[in-house]
Hints:
Strand content: 35-45%
Number of helices: 3
Helix content: 10-25%
Radius of gyration: 17 Å
Shape: elongated
Number of strands: 8
Low-confidence stretches: 1-30
Amino acid sequence: xxxxxxxxVRVxxxxxVRGGEGKRLRVGAxxxVRVxDxxxxxxxxxxxxxxxxxxxxxxxxxxxxxxxxxxxxxxxPDIFMNILxxxxxxxxxxxxxxxxxxxxxxxAIRLGAPNYPGDTMVLTGKVEEVDGDxxxxxxxxxxxxxxxxxxxxxxxxxxxxxx
Length: 163
């Protein structure tokens, strides 16, 4: 079950049903997260500011993340996003869907096509596994030249309220 646009869904107390396809998490108002459910896509505009701010925030001062001329000198057409910024955006995607109490237990990502300024990355996700109050979501982030990021995120949401 998907949340409506702008609606925040938080996983509450979970239940485990025998067999992988029957596993599900409880969410607000009787909804359940099930294996195979797709998260709504998230479009992120890739700007110079986002790339540089992400690099600075993660203390990644490599010139390919802030100096276009030096990036071109090293063979890149422009500056590009670092992996730590991508990791943060993937985490944001998951917590935007599951709510602020969600705890990221494991984030395992691999980078592919670079994120350059002026492009848009679209993050999509699909629930692969559910066990109690924990879910594993396969995440893909694609841009205009291919898949920027692929991987999985394991997320747990403590029992509690629904927003």
